[in-house]
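User: Just a sanity check before I run the rest of the batch. Below are the C-alpha cells for the first item. I only need the designed sequence back.
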C-alpha cells in the first residue's frame, strides 16, 4: 500500500515536471526558445539584397538602412505566419512615423505572395524570395530553420532581437520602445 502510494506520488511529480517543461519551453509566449539575444550576425547580406515585392517590382533593401526594421520571415502555407500578420500590420501603422518599418519577407513563390496580397489586407511591404529567403534568415540568426522568424534590426544595422515562431504586437512593442528612444 505504501509502495503504491509512493509510486503514485513519484509519477505525479514527474508528470507535473514534464507539464511545466512543455509549457515553459513550447507554449509560453516568452519562452527562451521563442526569443533570444541573437548571436553577432551581419546584416550586410540583407541590406545588399534586391528582392521583388508582391507586384514583381525589384526593391533595393538599402532603402531600409537608417530605419528600425522588424523583418518577418513567413510563407503563405504557414498558419502561424498568417495569424500574426494583423498584429504586424497594426505595429507597422503605429510605429511608421517613428522611423520603424515592418517588412514581410516571404520564403515563397512570387505568384503565391501576389495571390495572398490580393486576398489579405497588409499595411507593410511584402517581398518574395524563395530559397534566397531562407539563406537570408539563416544569415540573420535563424539557426533552427523555422517560420515564422522575426528579427529586429536597429537604425545602425545591428540585430537587436530575434524570435522563433509566432510573435505578438505586445512583445515587439516592448522590444522597440528602447530602440525608438535612442
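Assistant: Here's the designed sequence for the first item:
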Amino acid at each position: 500500500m505504501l509502495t503504491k502510494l509512493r509510486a503514485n506520488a513519484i509519477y505525479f511529480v514527474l508528470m507535473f515536471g514534464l507539464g511545466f517543461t512543455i509549457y515553459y519551453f513550447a507554449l509560453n509566449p516568452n519562452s527562451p526558445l521563442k526569443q533570444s539575444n541573437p548571436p553577432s550576425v551581419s546584416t550586410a547580406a540583407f541590406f545588399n539584397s534586391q528582392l521583388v515585392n508582391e507586384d514583381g517590382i525589384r526593391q533595393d533593401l538599402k532603402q531600409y538602412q537608417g530605419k528600425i526594421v522588424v523583418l518577418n520571415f513567413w510563407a503563405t502555407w504557414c498558419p502561424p505566419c498568417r495569424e500574426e500578420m494583423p498584429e504586424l500590420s497594426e505595429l507597422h501603422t503605429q510605429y511608421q512615423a517613428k522611423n520603424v518599418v515592418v517588412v514581410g519577407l516571404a520564403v515563397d513563390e512570387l505568384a503565391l505572395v501576389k495571390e495572398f496580397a490580393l486576398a489579405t489586407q497588409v499595411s507593410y511591404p511584402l517581398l518574395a524570395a524563395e530559397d534566397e529567403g531562407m539563406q537570408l534568415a539563416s544569415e540573420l540568426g535563424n539557426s533552427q530553420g523555422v517560420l515564422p522568424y522575426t528579427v529586429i534590426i536597429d537604425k545602425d544595422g545591428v540585430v537587436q532581437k530575434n524570435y522563433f515562431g509566432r510573435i505578438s504586437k505586445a512583445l515587439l512593442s516592448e522590444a522597440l520602445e528602447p530602440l525608438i528612444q535612442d
